[in-house]
Amino acid sequence: MSxxxxxGVDVEKQVKIVILGxxxxxxxxxxxxxxxxxxxxxxxxxxxxxxxxxxxxxxxRHEVTIRISDVGGFEFKGSMLPNYxxxxxxxxxxxxxxxxxxxxxxxxxLNEVTKILEKRPMxxxxxxxxxxxxxxxxxxxxxKRFVExxxxxxxxxxxxxxxxxxKLTTVFWNWWPPIWAYP
Length: 183
Known about the structure:
The structure is a single chain. The chain is globular. 29% of the residues lie in helices and 26% in strands. A hairpin with a 3-residue loop joins strand 2 and strand 3 (62-71). The chain contains six helices and six strands, in the order E-H-E-E-H-E-H-H-E-H-E-H. By secondary structure, it is of the alpha/beta class. It has a six-stranded mixed sheet with strand order 2-3-1-4-5-6, with helices on both faces.
C-alpha cells in the first residue's frame, strides 16, 4: 500500500552511534542488550569493530534506523578509527564503574575523537556494570567533574539487568534535535 493510502512511513532518518572505550568495559554487552534485549556472561573481545542496526518507529509515522559501530578497545591505536567515526551523530564513551583505569582513559578517547573530527558530535559518558555498585572504584564526584568540564552527558547502565538502557535511548531522542527536524 502506498503512503497516500494512509499506510507506511512518511520519513525515515538514520542515526549513527559509535561506542568507544577500553577493552572489557561492556560495550558489546550494552549494544546487544539494546538491540536484542539479551545478555551473555561469556566475554568475546571485539576485534576491529562490529556493526548493528535497530529500527524504531516514532510517533507521526516516522522511522529511525540506528546504526551502531561497536569499536574494539584496542582500536585506539588502529588506523581504522577515523573510518569508524566518519559521519557519527552520537558517541558513547563507556567505562566500567569497577575499573578506575577505564574511566581515566575516557579523556584519551575523547582527545582522539576531537583530533579526528572537525565538529564534535553529541557525546555521552556511560558507566557500565551499575548492578555491582558495591564494587564501584570510579568515584561519582570524578564522573561529575568530567561531565561538567567536557560538556558531555552521563548515564549509568547495567547490560546484565537492563537497568538504565531504555533511559539512555529515550534521553538521546529528547536531546538530539535532528531526529525531530523533519521537513
